[in-house]
């Protein structure tokens, strides 16, 4: 590739600023290729500038290869950042799912009521009578202090909340 083709390939991934300075006494120049942060500039490694100092002849011989290596490294870093983001998003989703499941298990559908065990049939317990009728013949038969269950018809379900 030519220098401008390589710059074009590099600029396709990020906006660039180029600065060029020369030291006439030393016969060397410095070129900075500075990527400008875009909207996804949360990784500082992708905004690291390429700074090269060499003679004009050295730049003629190796500048294109230096740009190519820089572009490939930036692309590799961008790929790594993207892969890391995908892993983090998957871990976040798994964590949210696990927390939701734990919350659901810890909180039954109707708070305050026990969750029935598998295979058990619910049989309502009628409320116990706490008062006894004075002078009743049944009092003599019943043990003192034991509550009595109210009489109901066979097959009838007592209303616990009525």
Can you lay out the helices and strands and say which pair or pack?
Blueprint: H1 3-11, E1 16-23, E2 28-35, E3 50-54, H2 56-106, H3 137-141
Antiparallel strand pairs: 1-2, 2-3
Helix pairs in contact: 1-2
Number of strands: 3
Number of helices: 3
The string of secondary-structure elements, in order, is HEEEHH
Structural class: alpha+beta
Inertia-based shape = rod-shaped
> Helix coverage percent of residues?
40-55%
Taking all Cα atoms into account, the compactness measure Rg is 41 Å
Q: Biggest sheet, in brief? A: 3 strands, antiparallel
For the record, give the distance between the C-alpha atoms at the N and C termini, rounded to a whole number.
Answer: 87 Å
Biggest sheet: strands side by side, in what order? Answer: 1-2-3
Low-confidence stretches: none
Mean pLDDT over all positions? 75
Question: Can you walk me through this structure?
Answer:
This protein has 162 residues and is an alpha+beta fold. 40% of the residues lie in helices and 13% in strands. The chain contains three helices and three strands, in the order αβββαα. Strands 1-2-3 form a three-stranded antiparallel β-sheet, covered by helices on one side. A hairpin with a 4-residue loop joins strand 1 (16-23) and strand 2. The mean pLDDT is 75.
